[in-house]
Amino acid sequence: MIFPNFAHLKKQSTLKLFPASAHTQLEFDKIKTLLTEHCQFEYSKEKSGRLRIHTQKSFIETELKQTHEYRQLLDNAIYFPNDYVLNLSKELKLLSIPGAVLSGENFLQLRKLVESMQKIFRWFDEERKAIYPGLASLLRHTHYEKSVIPMIDEKIDEQGQVKNNASELLRSIRLNLYQKRNELRRVFQRIISKLNKQGYLADIEESFLNGRRVVAVFAEQKRTVKGILHGESDSRQTVFIEPEETIDLNNELSSLETDERKEVYRILRQLSADLSVHAELLSTYHDIVGEYDFIRGKARLAQTMQADYPVLNDRSMIHLVNAYHPLLYLYNQKQNKPTIPVNLNLDEKNRILVISGPNAGGKTVTLKTVGLLQMMVQSGLLVPVHPSSQFGIFKQLMIHIGDTQSLEFELSTYSSHLLHMKYFMENANGRTLFFIDELGSGSDPNLGGAFAEVILEELAKKHAYGIVTTHYLNLKVMANKTAGIINGAMAFDEKNLLPLYKLIVGKPGSSYTFSIAERIGMDKKLIEKARKLVDEEHFRLDKLLNRTEQELQQIHKKEKELQQLLKENEGLKKEMQQVMDKERHCQQVELLKQQNRITEERLAYLKDMERKINQIFVQWRKEEDKNKLIKEMQALFFKKNETQRTNKMKKKIESKFEEVGGEIKIGDKVMMKRNHQVGVVKELRGKRAVVQIGVLPMQVELNDLIVVKEKEKKE
């Protein structure tokens, strides 16, 4: 069943593939297999197997966003409550059928499903809904039904059995069963004890046959023990007899057990009917849990191949930055080998890329990389590219790769090739992405090259996007002079005869035919003879491409060295800037320290002024000689001869008192360090002291006081 928020999938159009085996040729089927391995739920495994390639931007973007958000959860080790992985498709289908009855175990599994959904709904608080909108969107068209779990718990216990109190009748039946079984056990024990003393019992003593409790008696004593004979052992030395005393009890037990089964069945049937009201909702829950497992599988696959979330555009274009073939990346990762990334751009100006270069240089791998990544993105899978990469959306994808000889229609390789090209030219448009490996191969080079040129020109007129690999020189020349077509080459180390697997866009590449022949040690006479057979202009052009490519590699090498030097220079510049910033910071800190010190001194000065003013106000009321106080006020406010006065005060105090130091106690004479006034300590209050100076007591910091004593007068 498809639940509401996925009902639109039926209307989704998918990417049109040609030929039908295109997904196999681009190895998309292997990606689906890997995805299936990362899924746990039967629903998600089935969905992985039939993964569709979509063409609607909004749907693709939602799929990519959901996978990206789940990968963030995995990368940050954030728990998401989708541990429930049971497959309940049959049970849910049965629940929707009127009159169907589910077992206690079925109800227990449905309870786990609802409990899992309860955890998911609780997990998505308002904050997480904002952080993970893609994942939260799965719950947009459904709700959590609180009544389901209590409905099941009322009737079914934790082991999947119907509870004793599920109904009053069942409780009564099971109570009677319990009593009768105890009574039967006591009677049976008495019979066994009696028969055992008489020596009638075999080694096994008792057993159950046909649901009845029986005793095992030696065959020769079967007529001695009264009861019903239920059977005998294979050796016929032991017979099984239901004692006469227990027949009525066994009959009552059998009747009660039948009543119990009927009542249990009635309860399960009623519960199935009650729960069938929520059958559609439970199916929705089942699909949601499966969808979350499917998204988790995609996120885990993305982790293995270091895949990322690219930019999606609703138009035809491809912009790849550091793109990797996912399967090649995984293989090289196991082998501890590096994988060379692909960088290319197909847009309205340059729609078709013609890649040339030597065999085994990576042309086909590059072509397959672009095709496979495009299919993955449009199926909602993250891809191993830099996140700044951009993917357009195409309506159809065409591919012609490898030997396409058709035995069924008695077509040669080239005939099959032309048949495919005919389909390409007739059906291509501006939303088509095509891939052609070795365009024009399989025929006479001159004729095949001419046809290839016509085919490529026609595809360019149709505004189709694609990648073509070739060895034909005429296609390389054509690409340079035809609007919408651009050359590309696979880099090659001519000195060591090694492919570099790196795509260089903007120039054609050489096939290095004669260079490879020379390097492997082929006879020079044969090479020279072959050269003479080749058209001179053709040979000169290939040689020119060869030399150009090598020179371009040197330029790239120098450019790389220059970039490294620039990077080092930038690093030194940053270090110097950091040193300068640090020095500037130190200077600012020092300046602030000085300002703070001045502020503290100013604050202390103001406090001292306030104290002195208060002291003058107190003395003003008591002092008759107001002129003396006026002079003090003038000295205080206008700073006249303040330094001289301070020095005089200091000399006057020093002439009368001498410093003693030590701990300050009540009653000590002390001198204030700042203004050299002397007073008596009246009280100690923590780090302060109350000092009586004249008639005015004041509080002074202890560290601003020093103990003094009067000097002795000289006679």
Q: Enumerate how many helices there are, as a single number.
A: 22
Structural class: alpha/beta
Distance between the termini: 122 Å
Q: Would you identify the regions where 5 or more consecutive residues have pLDDT less than 50?
A: 1-5, 403-411
What share of the residues lie within helices? 40-55%
The radius of gyration over CA amounts to 48 Å
Overview of this protein structure:
The structure is a single chain. The protein is an alpha/beta fold and 715 residues long. A seven-stranded mixed sheet has the order 1-11-12-13-9-14-15, sandwiched between helices. Strand 12, helix 16 (445-461) and strand 13 form a beta-alpha-beta unit. It is flat. The model is unreliable at 1-5 and 403-411 (pLDDT under 50).
Short key terms for the protein model shown above:
single chain, seven-stranded mixed beta sheet, 715 residues, alpha/beta, 51% helix, 21 strands, disordered N terminus
Task: Provide a concise account of the structure shown.
With 715 residues, this protein is an alpha/beta fold.
Describe how the helices and strands are arranged.
Elements: E1 16-18, H1 22-25, H2 28-37, H3 42-49, H4 57-75, H5 89-95, H6 104-123, H7 126-131, H8 133-136, H9 148-153, H10 168-198, E2 201-209, E3 212-218, E4 227-232, E5 238-243, H11 247-275, H12 279-304, E6 311-312, E7 318-323, H13 326-334, E8 342-346, E9 350-356, H14 363-378, E10 390-391, E11 396-400, H15 413-427, E12 432-436, H16 445-461, E13 465-469, H17 473-481, E14 484-493, E15 498-505, H18 513-519, H19 524-533, H20 536-622, H21 626-638, H22 642-656, E16 657-659, E17 669-672, E18 678-685, E19 688-693, E20 696-701, E21 705-710
Parallel strand pairs: 1-11, 6-10, 9-13, 9-14, 11-12, 12-13
Antiparallel strand pairs: 2-3, 3-5, 4-5, 7-8, 7-10, 14-15, 16-21, 17-18, 17-21, 18-19, 19-20
Helix pairs in contact: 2-3, 2-12, 3-12, 4-12, 5-12, 6-12, 10-11, 16-17, 20-21
